[in-house]
């Protein structure tokens, strides 16, 4: 196969190891520190922004807003805005988001269950 056909084939077949593959960008969104925590927090429930921020310890308002916007743009988070005073916004996971959260939860549970075996978790 000529080089140009190889390049085209690489662009068409999802492969996270290929720098230009969109799957790499989505992976970085889902597995970012705040992305993982937002997915975990919203698993199976709807939350208002302030409750979500309190639930995810250490996240700034700006960082949480950016994370939710990114996950919403990727189709993982649903943002529902109510036309009331004061403004009321709720966040939940889409079906796709629930699927992604389930996968992320497996990794999180594995890490929590193996924390004592992980040298980096012990501190210096």
Model description:
The chain has 2 domains: 1-30, no CATH class; 33-116, Arc Repressor Mutant, subunit A. The protein is built from 6 helices and 3 strands. The chain has helices spanning 3-12, 22-30, 33-42, 49-55, 61-73, 95-113; strands at 47-48, 77-82, 88-93. It has a 3-stranded antiparallel sheet. Helix 3 (33-42) packs across helix 6. The relative contact order is 0.12. It comes from Aliiruegeria lutimaris. Keywords: DNA-binding, Transcription, Transcription regulation. This is Transcriptional regulator, HxlR family. InterPro entries: HTH_HxlR, WH-like_DNA-bd_sf, WH_DNA-bd_sf.
Task: Briefly summarize what is shown.
With 124 residues, the protein is mainly α. The chain has helices spanning 3-12, 22-30, 33-42, 49-55, 61-73, 95-113; strands at residues 47-48, 77-82, 88-93. The N and C termini lie far apart (52 Å).
Which descriptors apply to this entry?
single chain, three-stranded antiparallel β-sheet, 11% strand, 124 residues, mainly alpha
Terminal CA distance reads 52 Å
State the secondary-structure class.
Answer: mainly alpha
Spatial strand arrangement across the major sheet: 1-3-2
List low-pLDDT spans: none
Gyration radius (Cα, Å) is 18 Å
How would you name the oligomeric state of the polypeptide chains in this document? single chain
Order of helices and strands: HHHEHHEEH
Beta strands, count: 3
- Mind telling me the CATH class of the largest domain? Mainly Alpha
The profile of the biggest β sheet is: 3 strands, antiparallel
CATH superfamily of the largest domain: Winged helix-like DNA-binding domain superfamily/Winged helix DNA-binding domain
Q: In CATH terms, what is the fold-level topology of the largest domain?
A: Arc Repressor Mutant, subunit A
What best-fitting shape do the alpha-carbon axes yield? globular
Number of domains: 2
| Helix proportion | 40-55%
How much strand? 5-15%
CATH level-two architecture of the largest domain: Orthogonal Bundle
Number of H/I helices: 6
Mean pLDDT equals: 91
């Amino acid at each position: 196969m000529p080089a140009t056909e190889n390049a085209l084939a690489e662009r068409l077949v999802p492969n996270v190891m290929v720098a230009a593959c969109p799957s790499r960008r989505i992976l970085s969104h889902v597995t970012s520190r705040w992305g993982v925590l937002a997915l975990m927090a919203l698993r199976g429930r709807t939350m208002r922004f302030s409750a979500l921020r309190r639930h995810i310890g250490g996240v700034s308002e700006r960082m949480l807003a950016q994370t939710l916007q990114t996950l919403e743009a990727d189709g993982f988070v649903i943002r529902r805005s109510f036309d009331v005073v004061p403004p009321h916004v709720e966040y939940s996971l889409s079906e796709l988001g629930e699927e992604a959260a389930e996968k992320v939860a497996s990794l999180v549970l594995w890490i929590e269950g193996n924390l004592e075996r992980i040298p980096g978790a012990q501190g210096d």
